[in-house]
Predict the 3D structure of the following.
Amino acid sequence: MKLLIMGAQGSGKGTQCEELTKIYNIPAISTGDLFRGIIATGSELGKKVKTIIDAGALVPDETTVEVLKDRLSKSDCQNGFILDGFPRTMEQAKLLEGITQIDKVIYLNIETKTAIERIGGRRTCPNCSHIHNINYPGDPEYCSVCGTKYVVRDDDTEESILKRLQTFKEKTLPIVDYYRSKGLVIEINANINKEYALNQITEGLNNYLKGLGEY
Ligand code: ADP
Ligand code: ZN
């Protein structure tokens, strides 16, 4: 099953991916995580990418598609995957069609106000990418999955967040409409909580699989 998960910053894509990857046994691939991995190597490309990301801008399509294609060619992706953070522009959506065909698109619909509140408390594990919110129960300092100390991402500044939310509205939302017109979208109310969202997602995906006779 080849899936996309879409939604504004703070809608909970990463959190849902962590669960979906276990339930459906497919890898979750986040272009943001791929870029953070490249930055961590300290390479020339990494330095270039860091400047762009910290400003809340988009990495050029050419670089993004190359990084993604490389990841999708790995053997763990052959039975499917869930893409988080790609495509973000109509151009990327068209380029994706030249790479592979997507079965379903999960859209986490969230109110901007709620999204901003959530990103404010966001902590990320630099080791395993687990995401935690300090306003919710759990250890606020150390990763509940691997024990590494959480960090606040360098790009989670107010200025960068507002810019990314704006870019989402302008450039990414039109792609949701595009996929909707193709009948691919499972739309989720992401304002309630993560358990509710996961329930709705699995219900939608299981219905889809039932229709295929696979589940
Ligand atoms: P968020 O959803 O909070 O913006 P991500 O981890 O998905 O976080 O992405 C972090 C940054 O990585 C983005 O702000 C952008 O600079 C870059 N990025 C990620 N995916 C893409 C993409 N598909 N195209 C261009 N840039 C991307
Ligand atoms: Zn961790």
User: Anything to note?
Assistant: Residues 2-26+79-111+159-212 form a domain with the Rossmann fold fold (CATH 3.40.50.300). The first strand starts at residue 2 and ends at 7.
